[in-house]
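Lab notes, practical 5.
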Amino acid sequence: HQLAIRFLSGNMSVFVDGVFINSTLNSPSGLIGLPFHIGGSPWNSDVYFNGTIDDVMIFNRSLSAEEISALYANQSTRYLEKNFTGLSDSTHSFKAYTQDMAGNVNATELRTVTVNTLPPGFSNNQTSAPGKINEYVWFYVNWSDDNGLSSYIFSWNGTNGTWMNDTAVSFTGIVNQSNVTKTINLTRGNSIGWRFYANDSADQWNKTDIWTFTVENTAPTEVNLSYPLNQSSTTDRTPFFNWTASYDADGDAINYSIIIYENYCDISTYPNECIVNTITEDDIDAGNYTSAELGIDAHYNWTVRAYDGYNYSDWAEQHNFTIDSLISLRLDCLHCNDVVDFGTVYHNIGYNTTQDSPRPLILENNGNVFADIEMNASASLWATAGLDSQYFQFKAGNFSDQSSLNWSNSTTDWSYVSSNYTTAVSYLDYSNASNASTAEIELYIRVPSDEGAGKKSTSLNIKARYWDES
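Output from the prediction step:
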């Protein structure tokens, strides 16, 4: 038979042939210090076991009932299974023994098992963030695990503001790196958080801290200049500037700044010197701008940039144009008059147009400079009186605006019509506002006493010149 005595938690239990028989309160402390006897009694040297004893085993711990049964090693319990729980994270040694029916004992070699319940560790988190909407950013973290790494998952809220997990990615080894590249879909000022999860071959998971960054502003796009056309010329002194609208990926409101570089040379005013003026206008809401009046016979470079309240776009590629001077008169405007018909007239009576009956000559300066208006006659109106006489005279008038011309330099008193050009109107405005560019030339006729009957007519020649020309 097999006899096993176990001391555990103050109880002494007896097993025979691997089967529990009984237990009683007892402790081996009473044997401490006494001689150790096998088949005898420490208290009575005359008492001995009458039989054969072999395969004696003494353990330094209490065996379980399963282990005692396994030591008996009968046919139904020759396999030992033992589960241990709560083992600390360490390397543990174990050895197994067995005995056959003949009393032969064998044992395994000393074996070890390592318990590691620690999840993967992380370090060295890095990222290319912060970034801007629609930009790529990358993220990575180093991982290590004694059991061997298995997979990682990236998680962030940079796609639509909600935290989302990527599909798990496999990786191996005891040291490796998790990495991912993403596209930012959120606009300026949004806070984006990110982290990684990872597990090891024992399916133990760990997660990193949450790291955050703020989406940076995206500058508005560079505009394209449309008008005036590049390398063009115009006579419009208040040109309309136009450009394509800028786009702001963050949806910010955009305004524009324009710079116009004016380059011109005025020989009469600035001998041998060219003038460069810089014209700047900011906070333009629309994609166009009408400038204040610009100079003539000048070369202009211009450019535009956009601003979203945070950053400027690049300046657009400069365009250039010129504004040419234009001296031009017209007698066919809406209110103009190029024919004066006095109708039937009589000897020694004077007639004039000051009361608009008939209407005077009315002309318009449709150029882009102040103009002096000169006039002469091709021939005398009368057969019996020549030019430069009291019988045919003129003077300047104004159509509706007293400031449309320079009265002090104009001919404001009746003067003889001559074959030579004479200044009638000086410094006639070229602005179309309130008919400011329109002027009158009043006419006076008196029929000579010896003039014969019949239809009388002549042609008047009118020309304009730039008012400050020599």
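Observations recorded by the TA: Residues 65-72 form the longest helix (8 residues). The chain is about 0% helix and 40% strand.
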